[in-house]
Amino acid sequence: MKILNQLVFFTLVIFLSGCVSADYYRNTPSSKLCVDYLTLPSVNINHGARAEELARRGENCDQYMGAAQARRNADASFENSMRLLQQQAQPQPQQIRTPIQTQCYRNGQYTNCTTY
Description:
By secondary structure, the chain is an alpha+beta fold. It has 4 helices and 2 strands. The protein has a two-stranded antiparallel sheet with strand order 1-2. A hairpin with a 2-residue loop joins strand 1 (100-106) and strand 2.
């Protein structure tokens, strides 16, 4: 029972440590906040905290749209490269060719012939 309680406690600590408030981003540069806000999915656990901090600063992220698009392009390129690398690393199934055995008749004698 003690182990179960400790496991639940550590799980909660880990889960709740992912939740941050806008204060966490108080010293984060606006450029980083904006690019992260524009590129990370809205379901990201810290999306709201970033938005709160940007609103507190009265920040408009329009000037960082180009940087955000460049980051999206770089992320997409990286993901495509990793996908290709993974495909190359996977062993390709080899076609097993089973020889076809035929019987050849030559000069009155039977001979086994193999044909692929």
